[in-house]
Amino acid sequence: MKKLLIFILIITLIPKIGFTKAYKADFYYPSGDGPFPVVIMSHGKGGPSVTYHKKAEGATRNGRAAIVLDHYSARGEYGRKFRNFPKTSDGKKWREKDLINLLKTLKDKPKINRKKIILIGWSAGAGMVLPFISKPNKIQVPEDIFIIGAILTYPYTYGCYQNIKSFDVPVLINYGKLDGNDGNPLSGYFCWKDTLSKLDQNNFPVVFNEYENAYHGYDLPFLKNRPKICTEVQYRDGKGQSCMEFNESAFRKTIIANKKFINRILKN
Known about the structure:
Elements: H1 2-17, E1 24-28, E2 36-42, H2 50-61, E3 65-70, H3 88-105, E4 112-122, H4 124-133, E5 134-135, E6 147-153, H5 157-160, E7 166-167, E8 171-176, H6 188-197, E9 206-211, E10 229-235, E11 238-244, H7 248-266
Parallel strand pairs: 2-3, 2-4, 4-6, 6-8, 8-9
Antiparallel strand pairs: 1-3, 5-7, 10-11
Helix pairs in contact: 3-4
């Protein structure tokens, strides 16, 4: 009898311990019944902030649904609040699993048009998008899911080192021209510019926007009243500096560029 009670207790606890959802997803909808095209947003290594939710609210004003992913809060003490960040390789695995899981759940969201999905990511969040839109194919999406475009804002250098021959959807990349290691061609903006020059862009040309005097995080308003912050980064071929600073001009130009890109792929 005692063994039976222990077994029942274990079974009762499994859903709470072993199957807790490891991410959060906040859904935003325009007024109406839909189904609406949807933009799915993934934050950078620093974690979620109100910035992404403001961007989601902006999407709804333009008639689109939006989903803001939070890859940290359900996983423990991660993000700037706790000054604790996952390893790049671990974070990459988390994010990819989160997105796969989310895409599978969209069948239960009648207000979302599963044939019109746009993936958007910042820094490490942009890196998460890459396996879903790149050739050679690395991740297969569910059969009823159609990704029709992607916006990558200063995708991290780790993603630039991956084997990418082409993209299979239209892609917009936004980058500050000061985002890198003092002109080192193997970091930040410089690495991605070189990589894109070698891609096969016959089917889906990549739009690559470059912004003067802009560093990493240039479009994050919470950096507006903070001084430029630089940290040492270990790149594949050496160490360098990565700096973060808000840039009002580049921020506003990015809003216009993103809107224009989304309108084009949705044929608005």
